[in-house]
Target: F-box domain-containing protein
Amino acid sequence: MAALYREFEIDLDEVGIDDAILTTDHAIHKHIKQLIVVHRLMPFRKDPNYEVRWSEKLRLLLERLPRDKLESVCTPRSTELSQALLDLMFSRQRNLKYIQLGPGHKLQNISVPQLPRLEALEIPAHIGPLENLRFYQTLLSQNRNIKGLSVRAQHYDVRPGHTLPVDRGVEQPSNVFPRIFGHRPLELKRLLLCTQKLFDAETTLTPYIPFERLHELHFLDCDGIGQMLSLLGNRFKSTGSALQLLSLHAYTSNVVSNLDMAALEGFLESFKGLRFLEIRWDDIIRPDFHIRCLEGHMPTLTDLNLSFMKDEHRHKWFMNQHDVEKLFQMAPNLRQVALPLRDVNPYGRRGLSAVLD
Model:
């Protein structure tokens, strides 16, 4: 039973307020290490008491769980926790290693908890006023053990009376990074940046993140990705890189600086040793990607995904037979491969079979 309930996922909409899991010292409580609270079906009608009932269920669950036993807590990204719930959770669970909270509108009103074992956290997209980022900045500055960080916080207009997200496609500095970083460099191993502005990364980001020592790096729909890759490529030429996993999703219809192939290829040629590589383009860019930029990674690559967001646009680029042959010859450890090929196989059935053989 211990192994079965170590990771416990619960949808509070499917649990009654008087269910045993909430009202008694249930046998499984002591085995739960990872608590995942989900919303599978959001209520369609506006019930004025819905949030009150949902919060009450979560309060009952948190009060029933043994103190300081949880290692991770994930709450729905769409649901904000009250100040009382946040205080309750952090006062009872001080050994958390990972936290993923929903919208952070109440964070500025709570005391930053002491979580000495914290190893990873996610900064949510709907952070509310930028002052709420100080909560995460303090967590990062207090905990030297943090190895994993996901930044999804949206950029908000900071003028008086404005709380709307800044329009995508506006080339301007990040107003998120200065409110997260600045105290001291972090010793991260895993970093995910989603919808962030990277135009001023040289002053607001790279001084505080050891990119050359990262093992995993994810860029999802970030503005200024071309400048960022050029910056990192120049850096890696002198420092080397420990990267083993790189994931890049480029929705260029939303970003100012399109992902140009020169920046991408130069970045990939600046270091060696990737095991997992995923690059996904949207339906706007027409890449002229040269597989030779992966030669330094081919001996170690086990997973490769080069694809478009939508299948109907995959005809815009595909690998020729020579490149496919070279890939399989130089990458003997490949386990999974996804490549953009036309519906009509350009190699012919026999030709592609010969390449794969």
Summary: Residues 56 and 150 are 29 Å apart (CA to CA). Residues 50-64 form the longest helix (15 residues). Confidence is low (pLDDT under 50) at residues 158-164.
